[in-house]
Amino acid sequence: MNYFRPCISAMKGYVPGIQPREAGKYIKLNSNENPYPPSPLVEETLRQFSYQALRFYPDPLCHQLREKLGELYGLAPEQIICGNGSDDILNIIVRTFIQPGEVMAFYEPTFPLYRVLGIIHGAEIISIPVSAPYQDFPDPPPAANVFFLANPNSPLGYSVPLSQISELAQKVTGILVVDEAYAEFAKENALSLLTHFQNVIIVRTVSKSYSLAGVRLGYALGDAALIKEMFKVKDPFNVNQLTQKIVIAALTDQEYYRKNIACIVTTRDWFTQEARQLGYKIIPSQANFIFPSPPRQGEGRSFYQSLYERNILTRFFDEELLKDGVRMTIGTHEEMELTLQAMREIIKKY
Ligand SMILES: *Cc1c(COP(=O)(O)O)cnc(C)c1O
């Protein structure tokens, strides 16, 4: 007896980066985590949290949190839905807007989870490969019920200009999802499109920009009619009590957040220049990571391995369009000094 759905048996599954137990041993640049702690207001919130409250279910609709987000973005709470990380949000989107057999589409390389969610759901997947210089994007397939655009792109870090996203929103017949997991590190974002397009959903997360990958909170912004249907699909209590409180605290401390982001952007731009001078090729990045490649093509795996041997963790993706380099998160300035030193030694091999 084969108990499994054929589509699950045939699929690889999402592979997260290594999450080592001995945290101190490595310079961890493999999951695009923020190298700095969350706001001190988060610590304060945790200290004041009463464990007795845990016997109650959390607010299923995240009222306070959605109001807070609404203030921040100038949107009504009805235009916002929260999830257990943006992974949860992406899953809700797939299940709300794609009938099994209908089409999910995206450009590749992109965030690998879209495909995994699509396969599990029984969607037809149309992926459109794009390669450097990442400027002229082909039209989306006419049949796409949902088109996913990770912008800034993961794992490459480049950003599609707003004017082009706007064109894409016009061309996509279904929903255009702009996954802005890294938008806080970028010069532009697609928020303004929400006023012009009813078929655009923007997905954000506090995992990277607010140093809160561990609490799991993502959200979607969009037309109230779309968001309303997504509420029907989500798990009833998908965001726990602590997460709701912690995220409100973090969002309140905008000054801390702004300094944090500015610091990472400065380190990113400095590091990119230095690594280029060593001879690495790097696509200009608008995110909190870069995608450096050694001068010799097809050496991403050996580059990954050489960094790993020096206790520096990055991500290598064994795919045709990604095999020249690795994805490397921007850590603290000190961590990136050490990484640069390692890269200075490593490049002699190439
Ligand atoms: C990190 C990431 C996510 C997932 O974020 P979570 O909120 O931690 O689930 C979604 N999309 C992209 C492009 C990402 O890089």
Q: How is this structure best summarized?
A:
The chain has 350 residues and is an alpha/beta fold.
Question: How does this structure look, described?
Answer:
The protein contains 11 helices and 13 strands. A 7-stranded mixed β-sheet has the order 2-8-7-6-5-3-4, sandwiched between helices. Helix content is 36%, strand content 14%. The chain is α/β, with parallel strands linked by helices. The longest helix has 25 residues. Pyridoxal-5'-phosphate binds next to helix 4.
- Give the count of helical stretches: 11
Bound molecules: pyridoxal-5'-phosphate
What is the residue-averaged pLDDT? 96
Biggest sheet strand order reads 2-8-7-6-5-3-4
User: Which consecutive residue ranges, at least 5 long each, have pLDDT under 50?
Assistant: none
Q: What's the shape? A: globular
Order of helices and strands: HEHHEHEHEEHEEEHHHEEEHEEH
| Radius of gyration (Å) | 20 Å
Backbone structural class: alpha/beta
**Percent of residues in beta strands:** 5-15%
Task: Record the SSE blueprint.
Layout (H helix, E strand, L loop, with lengths): L5 H4 L17 E2 L11 H9 L14 H11 L6 E4 L1 H13 L5 E6 L4 H9 L2 E6 L16 E5 L11 H10 L3 E5 L20 E6 L12 E5 L1 H10 L7 H12 L1 H25 L2 E2 L6 E2 L1 E2 L6 H10 L2 E2 L14 E2 L3 H14 L4
Parallel strand pairs: 1-12, 3-4, 3-5, 5-6, 6-7
Antiparallel strand pairs: 2-8, 7-8, 9-11, 10-13
Helix pairs in contact: 2-8, 3-8, 4-5, 4-7, 9-11
Bound molecules: pyridoxal-5'-phosphate (PLP).
The site of pyridoxal-5'-phosphate (PLP) has 13 residues, from helix 4.
Quick tags:
350 residues; 14% strand; binds pyridoxal-5'-phosphate
